[in-house]
Amino acid sequence: MVARARDVELECERLESDHFWRVVNAFRSYRAHTLERINRAEKSFRSLPEAHRRLLPHFLKHLDDVRQCALHNAGVLQDVLGSCNHMFENKDYDFVDAAAESATLASNFDMDKLNSTLKQVVRDWTLEGAVEREACYRPIIDEISNHFPRDYCNPEDVHVLVPGAGLGRLAWELASLGYTCQGNEWSLYMLFVSHYILNRCPGMEQKTLYPWALQFSNNWRSADQIRPVLLPDIDPSCFPDGSNFSMTAGDFLEIYADEEDAWDCIATCFFIDTAHNIIDYIEAIWKILKPGGVWINMGPLLYHYENTPNEMSVEFSFEDVREIILKLGFHIEVQRDCVESRYTGNKRSMMKYVYDCVYFVAIKPGRLQTNADGTP
After folding, report:
1. Is 208 helix (H, G, I), strand (E, B) or coil?
2. How far apart, in whole angstroms, are the C-alpha atoms of residue 281 and residue 289?
3. CATH homologous superfamily for the domain 2-363
4. pLDDT tens digit string along 117-162?
5. What pTM, to 2 d.p., does this model score?
6. Is the dihedral of CA 211, 183, 266, 181 positive or negative?
7. How many other C-beta atoms lie within 10 A of the C-beta of residue 218?
8. Are strands 207-209 and 229-231 parallel, antiparallel or unpaired?
9. DSSP state, 105?
10. Cis peptide upstream of residue 232 (ω within 30 degrees of 0)
11. Which Pfam families has this protein been placed in (predicted)?
12. Phi, psi of 291 (to 5 degrees)
């Protein structure tokens, strides 16, 4: 039995290592992958009849501009990769230098993940993302400020957890208000980029990205495809004295498995539908919340693993999810349906996805530990 347990442990370590290097390879492959896509667009244009090409004499110049934007993005991503050499356990992973090419191109699936992360940067760390943040993050921030008013309690004593923290903006905002806040994220794509922004980008608008360089469809104008964004829109290093902000890497269910009655507040934004089994998430949130603690949720139910081959997934309606929440013992104090929100949208695109999200505030019955004056 001991040998079998060790074999399982070694297999888990191997799978984690394989995943780690797949993500690294995606960052390495960005340059070659994007150039191949742009070269394919150029080849297709050159295959048109000459009379058709003459109708758009500027198109090849546009593709050259797209190519330069993609090369710029590749340089930024190599900087991101280089900044993460000692990110985990102070190990040096010997990442390739900025000029190196990966031996094997990453899969389209992995490159889609990386390109999605670039769009997440717009949502979390640019001025253009302020509209999305206002729709999704502001209700959560306001609820925490109302539930734990800084005029009546020491915010450092209020411990807030943000599972599925993505690139860390919501957790950063809460920590900047003085709350002790920890973000948790599983995706290495997100962890690499958030580490770079939070730790290597002091000051405002230090970096330029072209997040839509590979968006060849639904563009109103050619210039929209090569539109830059500046990041970050605030200085991530600016915190009030005594602020406590941290990020943990790993699966939410594993990282917090041994905790109980540990958190005053848990804030989930576009997170609970990432579960294989959403009941596991709800039970874990119940367990780690203190009695009297508050769970604030915003998001849809776009189940992450619904169509993923060989992955277990159960998909419940919100009616069912609400029933589960109540049966586990939560009291739902606030519920707002059909809260309109976009996610990593491009405001200059012809196509936009709009979610009708559910926002709710649930309380774990009991009493929070109070200070001498009776405040949390």
Report:
1. strand
2. 12
3. Vaccinia Virus protein VP39 (3.40.50.150)
4. 999 999 999 999 999 999 999 999 999 999 999 888 899 999 999 9
5. 0.91
6. negative
7. 14
8. antiparallel
9. P
10. yes
11. CARME
12. -55, 130
65-119 pLDDT, tens digit each: 999 999 999 999 999 999 887 665 445 455 544 334 445 789 999 999 999 999 9
Reading the block at residue 49, the tokens are: 């009849």
Whether residue 70 contacts residue 213, with contact meaning beta carbons closer than 8 Å, is answered with: yes
Q: What residue spans define the domains of the chain?
A: 2-363
CB 193 within 8 A of CB 298: no
CA 232 centroid distance within chain: 15
Q: How many CB atoms lie within 10 A of CB 161?
A: 29
CA distance 25 to 74: 13
Provide the residue type at 5 as one letter: A
Residue 330 to residues 271, 277, 294, 324, 325, Cα–Cα distance (Å): 18, 18, 9, 9, 6
314's tokens? 């159960």
Residue 45 tokens read as 């244009």
